[in-house]
Amino acid sequence: MEMRFRNGDIQSARPPSWWKDVVVYQIWPASFKDSNGDGLGDLRGIISKLDYLKDLGVDVIWLSPMYDSPQDDMGYDISDYNKIYPPYGTMDDMDELIAGVHNRGMRIVLDLVVNHTSSEHWWFQESKKSRKGKYADFYMWRDAKIGKDGTREPPNNWGSVFGGSAWEWGEEREQYYLHIFATRQPDLNWESAEVRKEIHESALRFWFKKGVDGFRVDTCNIYSKDPELKDGEVTPRSAPFGDPQEGMVNGPMIHPIWQEIRQKVLNDFGDPLMVGELSLCTFEETMKYIGREPRELSMVFDFTYTMLGGIHEKPPHEVGSYPLPEAKKAMKKPQEYVVQPLAWASVFKENHDLPRSISRHGTNNPKFWEMAAKLLAMMTSTLSGTLFLYQGEEIGMTNIPETWSIDDCKDLSSINYWNKMEKEYPNDKEMMQKVWKGIVECSRDNARTPVQWSGEENAGFTTGKPWMRVNENYQTGLNVADQQKSQDSVWSFWKELLRLRKQHKEIFMEGSYHVHDLENKQTWTFEKRGKEGRKAWIVLNFSENESPVETRGKLALSNASNPGDRLQPFEGRIYFQE
Ligand code: TEU
């Protein structure tokens, strides 16, 4: 039987998916809240803030990796899928967290990191020993190539995302293993049915049985590699190595892999939220994951907007600003997913890999910080799809300041990049200054500073010594406690917007998106049209200058206290057209 639901789903007697009209909040456990004074965030810290999240309007928590791990890549290097990283807490704490979330009527999704494990995982510890045995084929082992002068060479020219070759020599087996990310993050061999079975059971079913409501899927489109492992193109970012993109993105087995996961695991657990981190995909390629039955994933993160100016594409010191029309165009692609019969979109500006949105897409001018943070909140919360908010975004947390130094950075990609440049440009102060500016503007460290809870010492994040330096701007109102006290704060504005978004969900969450001023470099104006004919008109001034404004309908909200005939710098407005 075919049924058409109000939100456009055409499915066989299946109710509309719960994960469409929710607000998801991403927690980065190390930096969210420390409960025991050891300087590192933990599960009990998260439990202590569940009421806070509920009050803000959050429906779902996405917890970045809390699994056991040597923390080479902050937990994206898992050594045991079924154990908690001890400094974060115990399995009892985790059970309590899941129950605490559910008791408040919220849900929880975990991070599924299964392109690779940590080299400390016992699968790898066994695999590296010998070419024989149960775990021998769990990873991507290949024989060396013999170079012109008879020396040993890696099987191809691929470079790792975090710098250096993507191949590492294993003495015991006398073979190379592939690591697209850090050396201690070996890629799993998804061709092996044994590997797939282990992942289904330990990484997925184990947690579904504990009651989790879904997963954010790390690098969901690179599990299946080109069987020939051909060399990649040498690009400015990958040089002197080749870029593995061609040989790993949407590889030949990727859809069978996802269909098998759906069939063998997900179908046993109803309709979980599965949001894929999907880089480098065209519209058509994306539809294969989310736009056809059986649906492989619920939705994806599309990075067209967040990559503007070259983030994650160019070396950080070459990343630049971008003209506003580019942003309007970039947003069209994910907004288009929503109006497809089966697909769905996510809306986000931040995550643990990106700089803070206020610094990247708003302004670094402190005079306009508050207006711009509210402007971005208006833009995010009026776009269709499932909204993802990153910890600290609700108070307008900013990038690290230029006065800090590389010693304050913790992320291996910042550190590796700094060291590589220092080696390439010894004694070149000017270049290293540029490199530092690049790190300040777009490194992952920006998103990873501790959450600023109050004006107390260490921003109320910990009573001990914070594992990572706290941004000092918590002392000047950029913290939760101070902002909760004021009706006019960024925090209160976000809370109001989340309420408005839910109240008018057919317009803001499900409506179609129509840009009005595509080529205008100063303002971004768009109309959202709901299925039942109701419309909203959103005008956003992305500049430090006043601007003329075209209005439509009745003013519902502005971030200016006295909206006039012209838009003030960084003013945004929402109008309803009945
Ligand atoms: O990221 C995948 C990825 O390719 C990135 O966006 C990457 O972090 C960036 O290009 C580095 O500059 C995912 C996770 O989100 C990231 O935190 C992990 O480090 C990575 O996978 C490996 O698991």
Explain the overall architecture.
- The N terminus is likely disordered.
- It contains 16 helices and 24 strands.
- A hairpin with a 5-residue loop joins strand 19 and strand 20.
- With 578 residues, it is of the alpha/beta class.
- Helix 11 runs parallel beside helix 15 and helix 12 packs antiparallel against helix 13.
- It is 27% helix and 17% strand.
- The chain has an eight-stranded parallel β-sheet with strand order 15-14-13-7-4-3-17-16. Strands 18-19-20-24-22 form a five-stranded antiparallel β-sheet. It has a three-stranded antiparallel β-sheet with strand order 8-12-11, with no helix packed on it.
- The longest helix is centred in the middle third of the chain and has 17 residues.
- It has three domains: 390 residues, TIM Barrel; 57 residues, Alpha-Beta Complex (Oligo-1,6-glucosidase, domain 2); 65 residues, Golgi alpha-mannosidase II (Immunoglobulin-like, Sandwich).
- It is globular.
- The protein binds 1-O-alpha-D-glucopyranosyl-D-fructose (TEU).
- The site of 1-O-alpha-D-glucopyranosyl-D-fructose has 13 residues, from loops.
